[in-house]
Structure formats: C-alpha cells, structure tokens
Design goal:
The structure is a single chain. The chain is mostly helical. It has a domain of 81 residues. It contains five helices and no strands. Helix 2 packs across helix 5 and helix 4 packs antiparallel against helix 5. The chain is elongated, with a radius of gyration of 24 Å.
C-alpha cells in the first residue's frame, strides 16, 4: 500500500513539475542597442517596404533605398542623426507610421533601425 501511495506521489510530482508557463518579459527599451547589420538586417526591410517603384527606388523619391546606394543616400542625405538617434528623420518617419505608406512597420523592425542609428549607422 505504501508503495502505491509513493508511486502516485512521484507521478503527480512529475506531472505538476512538467507543467509550466513561459514567462514573456517585455523588451527593455533602455537596454543597450543590439548589433544590427545594414546589409543583412535593414536592407531586406528597405527593399521589401521602401525601395519599390513609386517610393524610394532609383529615380523616385530620395533617399533611394536600393541595395547599392541605400547607405550613401541615407547618411549623406542627413536622414540619420547618430548624436540624437531618436531625432533622425528616418526613425521619426517609420516610428510615427508615416512611412511606409503600406502600413506601419513591426516594432521589431523599427527598433532595429533605431539600434542601427544608435550604434553609429555603420555601413555593414
């Protein structure tokens, strides 16, 4: 009898400890910025959402956000401010939802742009 009670307790203990909930902690906006690559992280977003016909493709609205000229056009055009990243025109336009016209970017994409600017807007 004691063996059966012991086995039931062990079984219940295993079931109870096997059930858990993932705790999702919100991202801390004050944490250090993540490393973001212009080429691998941001350019796919620019190509998909911005560097399209009628928007920021070559020959349309500046800055041109196509693969070969995005960095030069963004940085030399004054669209980023590495001293006050949240004051950057690029960041303000996408965080307000003004760009792209198809709808506001996901918060993770907006955060990547801000982190890229905060890290010095590297051509990486």
């Amino acid at each position: 009898m004691k063996l059966k009670i012991f086995l039931v307790i062990i079984l219940l203990g295993g079931i109870i400890t096997g059930c858990y909930y993932d705790v999702v902690t919100p991202k801390d906006p004050n944490k250090p910025p993540q490393n973001v690559s212009l080429q691998y992280d941001l350019q796919p977003i620019f190509s998909r959402e911005c560097g399209i016909s009628g928007c920021h493709a070559a020959g349309d609205h500046k800055p041109y956000l196509v693969q070969d000229s995005a960095y030069t056009n963004i940085v030399s055009g004054g669209f980023v401010n590495t001293t006050l990243p949240s004051s950057s025109i690029l960041y303000q336009e996408i965080s307000s939802g003004a760009m792209p016209p198809g709808g506001k970017l996901p918060d993770t994409d907006i955060k990547m742009v801000l982190d890229w600017i905060t890290n010095g807007a590297q051509n990486n």
